[in-house]
Write a structure and sequence with these properties.
The protein is an alpha+beta fold and about 575 residues long. It has 15 helices and 31 strands. About 40% of the residues are buried. It binds adenosine-5'-triphosphate and magnesium ion.
Length: about 575
Amino acid sequence: MLFSKLYAPTIKEKPADSETISYELLTRGGFIRKVAAGIYTYLPLGWRVIKKITKIVEEEMDKIGAQEFMMPIIQQAEIWKESGRWEDYGPEMMKLSDRHGREFTLGPTHEEMITFIVRNELRSYKQLPLILYQINQKYRDEIRPRFGLMRAREFIMKDAYSFHSDEKSLEETYQDFYRAYSKICERLELNYISVEADTGAIGGTDSHEFIILASTGESDIYVCDSCGYSASEERAQSKIPENIPEEIEPLEEVPTPNVKTIEDVSEFLKVSKEKIVKSLLYVGRNGYVMALIRGDYELNESKLKSLLKDQTLRLATPEEVQRDFGVPIGFIGPVGIDGVKVQKVADLSIKNLNNFVVGGMKEDYHYINTNLNRDFTVELWGDIRTVKEGEGCPKCGNQLRHTKGIEVGHIFKLGTKYSEKLNGYFVDEEGKNKPYLMGCYGWGISRTLAAIVEQLHDDNGIIWPISVAPYTVEIVIVNTSDEEQRTFGFKLYEILKSRNCEVLLDDRETSAGFKFKDSDLIGFPIRITVGKKLKDGKIEIKKRYEEKGVEVSIKKGLEEVVDLIEKTIEEYSTKFIQNNLTIS
Ligand code: ATP
Ligand code: MG
């Protein structure tokens, strides 16, 4: 390809709406253009990378026996009503209706659709296991479509679904996906980690996420360097010191004028935060839920939603609290609250805690010396706390380390959740009708494009791994009006092309500085400079991540130069950069 013909409009300045480095560099490098919030166009360079990522994913899927096919993006509301997710999936679903008023959604995911498709024809144990996958656009009306391609409203996903007659078969396929996903990360030459994950709105049992490490990532990860335990924040657990039981004191109501936050209460009453129980009021599908947690810990909403199996859960507003309980939100507490009106859910951190402080259910009052069972009861116990760095690993007790990354892949064991609801049954060897066991496996193709850039860049631009670089080699003719440089550049370009090397020739009539800036910004792995020194029989070969290139003599002939370029391609490794990465 000739740069003079390539549609890659590069931009010098940072875009005004720059949200993250990948958005900035992909926009400036002429890979993508934002069309509306969370909606993007892939320009030729961006699309080349997308296709390369896609190819790697497809190859690894094919290796584990997954068959590619294609489902529609528009899905009828009925199947979502069958599963119950028409309501449960929440406002992330993009809904539309046709001229007859029939409702549809633009598929945010395809569990319902796949089950609907196979349920009439996948009827015998002899047809199992079956793994199908597709690559297409998904639609989610994300509450905050920011971070460029990382959290888009229209994005490209590979989604696979598997069907099994027994647990063993599901487990085998799950492990196949686990290995295939690890292989994809390796082929992308990325620094990654796999972590135990929450099953969220999709539901199910086991789940792992594949995370590309990057300090700019949205995923918080806790890792134990001693035993290898790793989990996402929504799932991570830790050992917490047990509360030591004390002699129980009588409950007392005390005035606490204008004292609202945990800090205020702690200061005003001269008690440590560990002796205060926070009461957080939520509204869910079945009404109010009060989540109780020790004052020094943070509540984890994802864990709470999973525990209650209610993805619609949200914090109650101050107005709702005032209207329904007659107190300002800062003074709510579990004493005197009826478990029928409000379900009380407590974090394990308050087990065995005695004589603690809670809201007084009366403006400007708190209770001190509150005790479980005597003063109030808890309807549901669970781990609903966010882990903190330095706490003990739940497996070995060693300190947990916090790191950040970008989730690119997510695998789930769904069990029979969708097959039961959507009537996906098969006949087993004994002639019995059974729901299939299912798995689902997502990979964010367009998010991967952004994640690579988040991990691999420097001040000047992107540093592509060879495996997905839009072009492997770029030849820069420094002075296009110099006939010798032009001739040599074009000749080298033709030879590289004939050797199946993906090469771009910068033949534009612009300044050398401009070309080099674009070269670094776009981030071609190998740059060959044909410039002034050609007169002395020298050109330069440079790896994108190295400061300086290597001068090469062309005197021995072009074949030898090309061999050297090929050798440089072989040696190129982004591991080199990753070893110097610091991720906070
Ligand atoms: P997140 O927690 O980031 O919202 P998710 O759990 O909703 O992700 P899944 O439903 O598991 O994501 O989707 C599978 C994959 O699709 C994710 O691992 C991610 O790579 C990609 N993905 C999900 N949401 C988006 C989005 N809004 N934009 C781009 N890619 C996305
Ligand atoms: Mg999501």
